[in-house]
């Protein structure tokens, strides 16, 4: 059985267009322990794509590849590639409320096909030695009973999947956009707690609407891990408290200014290698949220990134403005 070596008590959700490698490096500056996830990458992109969709920085560990797909052969190929790249784990997307992509189904619609997910996991675990996990919803469309989730988890767990991350909302596959699917269906945390009670041998993490460490601690009395998404992206400096709050590590004395300075070497390297400052700065816009000069920080980065596309000058000047 493919047991995880990662401590999943706290993770940052995979978010399309957001949790790219620059974003993950930035978060890692503030937390050694948090588990970081890639944006969802499809099997088609990995097998047939022209770009390097798996690239990441060694500093990002522990880092998990989130994979979209449903063909066991392709999923196995992608798993093999992920292991060769050095990912710590692979997570199958069974939560995205998207419809279909060219190479078949992926996302939340797979909740209705637990046998397919189980076959993918078996094929992947034969192709690689790293753990394979699943991120899912509590239900889809009119399948609103707990029994639907129970059957899904039971079937997939029989393929030796031991960790499930459950977004505590159902997904509407018709009629709601992906954005609405993150906000409109009501949260049902007790259903995820019930899952943990029924499957105590499984590792169950909870996701959806978690905004503070107080929220996180309440959930951790019931389940094994919490996953935060938009709350972290909008106010990234909360990452500096994760190791102390969740993992009982020593308090992190890093300041916002030190976080920016800790990014300098990375910014130099990446902008020399072809990235622009905006590729990195866009993830840092929320760093000063709640601080007196937050708006000045955001505005300076947004308005000047294109004028200063390389090196650290953009960030140094922004720091001077915030320091007043």
TrEMBL record:
<comment type="function">
    <text>Catalyzes the synthesis of 5,6-dihydrouridine (D), a modified base found in the D-loop of most tRNAs, via the reduction of the C5-C6 double bond in target uridines. Specifically modifies U20 and U20a in tRNAs.</text>
</comment>
<feature type="binding site">
    <location>
        <begin position="14"/>
        <end position="16"/>
    </location>
    <ligand>
        <name>FMN</name>
    </ligand>
</feature>
<feature type="domain" description="DUS-like FMN-binding">
    <location>
        <begin position="12"/>
        <end position="310"/>
    </location>
</feature>
<feature type="binding site">
    <location>
        <position position="167"/>
    </location>
    <ligand>
        <name>FMN</name>
    </ligand>
</feature>
<feature type="binding site">
    <location>
        <position position="66"/>
    </location>
    <ligand>
        <name>FMN</name>
    </ligand>
</feature>
<protein>
    <recommendedName>
        <fullName>tRNA-dihydrouridine(20/20a) synthase</fullName>
        <ecNumber>1.3.1.91</ecNumber>
    </recommendedName>
</protein>
<keyword id="KW-0285">Flavoprotein</keyword>
<feature type="site" description="Interacts with tRNA; defines subfamily-specific binding signature">
    <location>
        <position position="298"/>
    </location>
</feature>
<dbReference type="InterPro" id="IPR018517">
    <property type="entry name" value="tRNA_hU_synthase_CS"/>
</dbReference>
<feature type="site" description="Interacts with tRNA">
    <location>
        <position position="182"/>
    </location>
</feature>
<dbReference type="InterPro" id="IPR001269">
    <property type="entry name" value="DUS_fam"/>
</dbReference>
<keyword id="KW-0288">FMN</keyword>
<keyword id="KW-0820">tRNA-binding</keyword>
<dbReference type="InterPro" id="IPR013785">
    <property type="entry name" value="Aldolase_TIM"/>
</dbReference>
<feature type="active site" description="Proton donor">
    <location>
        <position position="96"/>
    </location>
</feature>
<dbReference type="InterPro" id="IPR004653">
    <property type="entry name" value="DusA"/>
</dbReference>
<keyword id="KW-0694">RNA-binding</keyword>
<comment type="similarity">
    <text>Belongs to the dus family.</text>
</comment>
<keyword id="KW-0560">Oxidoreductase</keyword>
<feature type="site" description="Interacts with tRNA">
    <location>
        <position position="93"/>
    </location>
</feature>
<comment type="similarity">
    <text>Belongs to the Dus family. DusA subfamily.</text>
</comment>
<keyword id="KW-0819">tRNA processing</keyword>
<dbReference type="GO" id="GO:0102264">
    <property type="term" value="F:tRNA-dihydrouridine20 synthase activity"/>
</dbReference>
<feature type="site" description="Interacts with tRNA; defines subfamily-specific binding signature">
    <location>
        <position position="295"/>
    </location>
</feature>
<keyword id="KW-0521">NADP</keyword>
<feature type="site" description="Interacts with tRNA; defines subfamily-specific binding signature">
    <location>
        <position position="179"/>
    </location>
</feature>
<feature type="binding site">
    <location>
        <position position="135"/>
    </location>
    <ligand>
        <name>FMN</name>
    </ligand>
</feature>
<feature type="binding site">
    <location>
        <begin position="207"/>
        <end position="209"/>
    </location>
    <ligand>
        <name>FMN</name>
    </ligand>
</feature>
<dbReference type="InterPro" id="IPR035587">
    <property type="entry name" value="DUS-like_FMN-bd"/>
</dbReference>
<feature type="binding site">
    <location>
        <begin position="229"/>
        <end position="230"/>
    </location>
    <ligand>
        <name>FMN</name>
    </ligand>
</feature>
<dbReference type="Pfam" id="PF01207">
    <property type="entry name" value="Dus"/>
</dbReference>
